[in-house]
Specification:
alpha/beta; two-stranded antiparallel ribbon; 7 helices; 31% helix; transmembrane; disulfide bond; membrane
Length: 331
Amino acid sequence: MLVNPRPTRRARRFWPAGCFTVLALLVLAVIVIVLLWYLLAGRLREPGETPPPQPPPSSQSADCPDVMLLSIPGTWESSSNDDPYNPQANPLSLMLGVSGPLRAQFPDDRLEVYTVPYVAQFSNPIALPPDGQASYNNSRTEGTARATDILSERHQQCPLTTYVLAGFSQGAVIAGDITAQIAAGNGPIPADRVLGVTVIADGRRTAETGPGQPVEIGNPPPPGQGAEVALRGVNVPGITMTGERPGGFGSLAPKVFSICAPGDMICDAPREALNPANALGSLATLIRSVGNPVHALYATNTVDGQGTTATQWTLNWARELIENAPHPPHS
C-alpha cells in the first residue's frame, strides 16, 4: 500500500540579516537628524530672575549718562558684530530714524544711545534647501541677552541713569519681554528707572484694553492680534510662539506705547489667518509677512490725522522724555 508522503510546510522567507542592519541604520540616522534639527534650531530662553535691587546712592560717576536710549532693531536690521554706537549692519533700519536724530541732538553726558547688536534673523523651517539663517529662537534669545546685559551693566555702573526703550518687529518683542520682566521685578533694572517704552509691530500684541495693556497709538488701533498670540502654543524646531505676556506690562503699562499698522500681520493678524492647526503653513505666511509692504513702511505709515509717521511719533515721544528726564548729581 502506498503511503502519502508527509505534507511539507511551505518554506518561510527570511530577510537576510544585512537588510535588518541597513534598516536599523536608516532609522537611527533619521532620529539623529531630527535631534540635531531641534538642538541646532535652539530653544527660546526668556530672561530669568535677577537679584533684588539695592537702594540707589545720592550721586553717580561723572562719566554716566543721565539717560540711556536702548534701541532694538527688527529682523534683518542688525547683526551680532554690529557697532552699538555706530550701527551699520542695515543703513535702512527703521530704528535709525529714531536713534540718529536723538544722538545728534543730545550730548553724550545727557544721552547714551545704544543700538542692540544681535543676529536679527528668522529662518524658514521648511525652506529647501535650508536658508542658512539663524532660527527665530536663537536670534531672539541672543537679542534678549545682549539687551539685558547692557541694561544690567549700565545700571550697576550708573544707578541713577534712567532709560527709554524702543524696538521694532522682533526688536519690539524683545523690548516688550524685557519690560514685562522689569515690571514684574525680575528685570535688569528697577521699574522706577524706566521713563517709557515704545514697541512698533509687536508680535505679542493682544489688542486688548485693561490692566497691564499698553497705550495704543492710532485712531482707532487695528483689531487684530500679534502673530505670536494667534499662533500661541506652536513649537517647531527653532520657532516657539509664546502667546501673550502673562500680566502684560504690569505697573509699567501706562508708560508703554504700542504702534501697529492696520493689515500688518506681525501685529494685526486675524485669528483665522494664522491657524495653529496648520502650523507650518501659518509660519510660512508669518515669515512672508516680515517683508510685506505694510510691515516695511512704518517710516511712512501715519498714526494720526496730522500725518505723523510711526518713526516721527516715536522720535517726538523719546525727545520729550529725554528733555524732561532727571539730572542726577555726579561725583
